Amino acid sequence: MSERKLFGTDGIRGKANIYPMTPEVATALGRAVTHYFQGHTKRKKPLIIVGKDTRLSCYMFEQAFAAGVCSQGGEVILTGPLPTPGVAFVTDSMRADAGVMISASHNHYSDNGIKIFDSNGHKLPDEVELELEELVLNLQLMPVKVGGDLGNAKRLREVFGRYLVHVKSAISNSCKMDQMRVVLDCANGAGYRVAPMMFDELGVEVIPLGVKPNGQNINLNSGSLHPEQAAEYVKQYRADLGVCLDGDADRVVIIDEDGDVVDGDVLIGLFAKLLLDKGSLKKGDTVVGTVMSNLGLENYIKSIGLNFHRTKVGDRYIVEHMRDKNCILGGEPSGHVIFGEYATTGDGCLASLKTIEAMKFYDKKLKELTKEIKLFPHIVKNVTVREKKPLEEIPSIVSALAEIEKELGSKGRILLRYSGTEPLARVMVEGESLSTVNSICERLVDLVKRELGN
Fold first, then answer.
1. Confidence of residue 1 (pLDDT cuts 50, 70, 90)
2. Which end of the chain is flanked by fewer CB atoms within 10 Å, N or C?
3. d(CA 28, CA 93)
4. How far apart are alpha carbons 205 and 233 in whole angstroms?
5. CA neighbor of 178 nearest in space, from 206, 153, 149
6. pLDDT (tens digit, 9 = 90+) per residue, 183-210?
7. 98-102 and 111-117 beta bridge pairing
8. Hey, do 12-162 and 378-452 end up sharing a CATH topology, with the first three levels equal?
9. Which residues contact 130 (CB under 8 A, 6 or more apart)?
10. Strands 378-384 and 337-339, how do they pair?
11. How many angstroms from the chain centroid is the CA of residue 234?
12. Could you tell me which CATH number the domain at 164-243 has?
């Protein structure tokens, strides 16, 4: 496969107004997406949904992308702030040809990104992204549209209501949520309006945090990256749980009634048991994780009669495997959880409702529900790198990894990989002993710093 010049593991992402995240690239990408889908639609003018989170630069990028669509003869519907899973769902619901989310997810407000969905709300495969890159970098490959062949745009703020109804419909009618108290931190992001409304309509008493976006406070000391305040509020208000979304609300961090964060892998284990006991999963079915998923989760999944499969990091790769093998549950330790019966991407709002559904189904508090899922001690550390040189071409790293893998045997794992969106190497170590895990992680971090550090 050709080397990717623009797209990373989750669309295009970078510092806003610095290449490649510039309005010029956004306009060119709008043209490219429109041109590509003109060959895959029966419409004369492709219909493209464009959503965004709340960061300041989204105004610039939604207008630039929409201009590109219009100049290439497409039609645009601008949704305003909407969670990523909402954009994916609305794209499918409105029979659009493509959907676009403008967001840098959990990154600082000064970053931004663009990710693209097909007509069914699925992220585009690598080969299509490479085609789009070729068009963006060679604009002469696309014909210039003039006169009546130009497109148009309109803003429909009420489309979030479609997503709201859809998410609520994923919960059993027998699951009554009145008398529940939830601390909800929306990270001043894309879910700031729809998430509180969702819980309110289900009768939940909501204690809201992070619902006053100003363009520069998305993810700022709030949301899934910073659940500390929500955890304190859970204890202070004696809430049943806390819910912390990230900037585009496609992932969630859950806090139990004692103010303790529930690991994302533990949540996936809980959901697997819930779906199994409710009959949506049957013995022998497969739950999908990634190479970052904890070995303890894999062991638990197998202990309840299910299989476990690992993909590359990124919910797009989880979804691709789920589609290929007809799986209905997958997720990442970061809090991306995909319920294949209802969503085509990670959905923080849906995962939070499913957490409550589990509590109601088993009639237990969250702490008790999760205590049987035992994870291995697990550490991930990031190292800033000056370049992303192929790791297999660095003899000292290859030698160290082989030595450590032999040392751990079947009672642990190591993983060294580059971030797809930032200049970072991620060092992950798992094992039965925390002291051993710490020691090995420090050895690898020091080695990576020497070889690749900035």
1. low
2. N
3. 26
4. 13
5. 206
6. 999 999 999 999 999 999 999 999 999 9
7. antiparallel
8. no
9. 1, 2, 4, 7
10. unpaired
11. 25
12. 3.40.120.10
Helical pair 348-362 and 194-201, crossing angle rounded to 10 deg: 20
| 143 φ/ψ sector (left φ>0, alpha ψ -120 to 50, else beta) | beta
Compute how many other C-beta atoms are within 10 angstroms of the C-beta atom of residue 61.
Answer: 28
Residue 432 neighbours by CB under 8 Å, 6+ apart: 376, 377, 411, 412
10 Å Cβ neighbour count for 178? 8
pLDDT band at 371 (very low <50, low <70, confident <90, very high): very high
Domain 12-162, CATH homologous superfamily name and number = Alpha-D-Glucose-1,6-Bisphosphate, subunit A, domain 3 (3.40.120.10)
Residue with tokens 């923080």: 348
- Cis geometry, peptide bond prior to residue 390 (ω within 30 degrees of 0): no
Tokens of 265: 């892998």
Q: Does the active-site annotation cover 105?
A: yes
Of the residues 57, 71, 103, 105, only one is catalytic, namely: 105
Most confident range, picked from 230-244, 415-429, 431-445: 230-244
Residue 36's nearest CA partner among 120, 100, 98, 96 is: 98
Structural domain boundaries in the chain: 12-162, 164-243, 262-370, 378-452
Which CATH code is given to the segment(s) 262-370? 3.40.120.10
Let me know: does 202 contact 177? Beta carbons within 8 Å: yes
Strand partners, 49: 77, 99
The overall average pLDDT reported for the chain is 95
DSSP string for 286-348: EEEEETTS-HHHHHHHHHTT-EEEEE-SSHHHHHHHHHHHT--EEE-TTS-EEETTT-SS--H
What CATH number labels 378-452?
3.30.310.50
How many residues make up the chain in this entry?
454
DSSP-based helix, strand, coil % in the chain, nearest 5: 40, 20, 35
- The Cα–Cα gap between 311 and 218 comes to 30
Q: Which of 343, 426, 345 is nearest to 378 (CA)?
A: 426
Residue where the block lists tokens 């989760």: 297
3-state secondary structure of 255: strand
Of 378, 380, 366, which is closest to residue 261 (Cα–Cα)?
366
Q: Which long-range CB contacts under 8 A does 389-396 form with residues at least 24 apart? A: 389/452, 391/416, 391/417, 391/418, 394/451, 394/452, 396/447, 396/450, 396/451
Spatial CA neighbour of 315 closest among 285, 348, 284: 348
Show the CA angle centred on residue 276, arms to residues 274 and 279, nearest 5°.
105
